[in-house]
């Protein structure tokens, strides 16, 4: 398979009174037509990497190519054949849906009609409101409009930086269904998200924390490589149980996960020495893998 995005030893720091290391020796290879997820919390370095790949920011060290072109030397060419949807809604609030889309078509010297097949399935959902100003749209509709504008010139590679942050659960689900449809058109999609549950919707993912890549693999392989037996426990007061478990010598890792505690014990000693209602073995999720890797990195 052809490589669509190549990232080689990319590092980036921000200077100031308190210098911040945003990216540390990032290496990734993303193949053509892949839906690739960059998964990590706020401040992990996701946006810095996206800005470097979309030619908006220069790396301190390393190189990167998009569709075979260097992000520094060939930045003008790259801008013509990528789509970029930043984390914040960045379209013109005073323009209507129709006017925003027409503006972006004009910028890329194309027409809505010429590329309508690319956006049809998405645009039909907002077309009844095409005369409404962008600033008056709901979060889900803004999301669909921004995606249409990013696609109107038929990009080869699409960068989506936290596209579902602040969007309701129904719109989040609809958005990922739209990405599945775009993938069928052989567009390479790189998407970042802080939502661990969205990781399982990608072909492959990279888990990133504090500017470092902790793991790169398919979601299934990352879960299957979890090195411990994971248990969930529940008590009348989970926060009290959490504090007690942290003091037990036989507990390697313990944290709140929904209405349960997730616990990893040392070796075969699974005894909880305080009153509790439940204790059972469970299959880890991407979030559990992330927490385990994060603890490993910090030790």
Per CATH, the superfamily of the largest domain is P-loop containing nucleotide triphosphate hydrolases
- Order of SSEs, N→C? EEEHEEHEHHHEHEEEHEHEEEH
Helix tally? 9
Oligomer: single chain
* Cα-to-Cα separation, first versus last residue: 37 Å
Tell me what you see in this structure.
- This protein has 299 residues and is α/β, with parallel strands linked by helices.
- The protein folds into 2 domains: 3-223, P-loop containing nucleotide triphosphate hydrolases (Rossmann fold, 3-Layer(aba) Sandwich), CATH 3.40.50; 227-283, Alpha-Beta Plaits, CATH 3.30.70.
- Helix content is 29%, strand content 29%.
- It is built from 9 helices and 14 strands.
- Strand 4 (61-66) and strand 5 form a beta hairpin.
- Helix 3 packs parallel to helix 5 (139-151) and helix 4 (116-123) runs antiparallel to helix 5.
- The relative contact order is 0.14.
- The mean pLDDT is 92.
What key attributes describe this structure?
299 residues; Alpha-Beta Plaits; 29% helix; globular
In short:
The chain has two domains: 3-223, P-loop containing nucleotide triphosphate hydrolases (Rossmann fold), CATH 3.40.50; 227-283, Alpha-Beta Plaits. It has nine helices and 14 strands. The protein has helices at 46-53, 75-80, 97-107, 116-123, 139-151, 169-183, 219-224, 238-245, 286-298; strands spanning 3-14, 20-31, 35-39, 61-66, 69-70, 82-85, 157-161, 188-193, 204-209, 212-217, 230-234, 251-257, 260-265, 278-282.
Fold topology:
Blueprint: E1 3-14, E2 20-31, E3 35-39, H1 46-53, E4 61-66, E5 69-70, H2 75-80, E6 82-85, H3 97-107, H4 116-123, H5 139-151, E7 157-161, H6 169-183, E8 188-193, E9 204-209, E10 212-217, H7 219-224, E11 230-234, H8 238-245, E12 251-257, E13 260-265, E14 278-282, H9 286-298
Helix pairs in contact: 3-5, 4-5
């Amino acid at each position: 398979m052809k490589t669509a995005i190549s990232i080689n030893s990319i590092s980036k720091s921000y200077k100031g009174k308190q210098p911040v290391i945003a990216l540390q020796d990032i290496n990734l290879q993303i193949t053509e037509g892949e839906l690739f997820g960059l998964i990590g919390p706020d401040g992990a370095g996701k946006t810095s990497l996206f800005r470097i790949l979309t030619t908006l920011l220069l790396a301190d060290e390393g190189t990167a190519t998009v569709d075979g072109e260097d992000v520094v030397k060939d930045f003008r060419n790259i801008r013509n054949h990528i789509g970029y949807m930043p984390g914040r809604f960045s379209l013109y609030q005073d323009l209507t849906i129709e006017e925003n889309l027409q503006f972006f078509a004009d910028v890329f010297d194309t027409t809505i009609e010429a590329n309508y097949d690319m956006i049809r399935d998405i645009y039909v959902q907002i077309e009844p409101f095409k005369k409404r100003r962008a600033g008056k749209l709901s979060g889900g509709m803004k999301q669909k409009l921004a995606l249409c504008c990013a696609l109107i010139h038929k990009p080869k590679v699409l960068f989506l930086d936290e596209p579902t942050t602040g969007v309701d659960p129904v719109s989040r689900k609809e958005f990922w269904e739209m990405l599945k449809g775009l993938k069928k058109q052989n567009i390479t999609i790189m998407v970042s998200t802080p939502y661990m549950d969205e990781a399982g919707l990608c072909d492959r993912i990279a888990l990133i924390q504090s500017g470092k890549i902790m793991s790169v693999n398919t979601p299934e392989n990352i879960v299957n490589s979890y090195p411990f037996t994971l248990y969930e426990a529940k008590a009348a007061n989970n926060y009290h149980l959490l504090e007690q478990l942290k003091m037990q010598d036989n507990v390697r890792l313990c944290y709140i996960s929904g209405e349960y505690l997730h616990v990893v014990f040392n070796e075969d000693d699974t005894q909880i020495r305080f009153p509790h209602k439940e204790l059972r073995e469970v299959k880890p999720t991407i979030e559990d893998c992330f927490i385990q890797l994060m603890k490993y990195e910090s030790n």
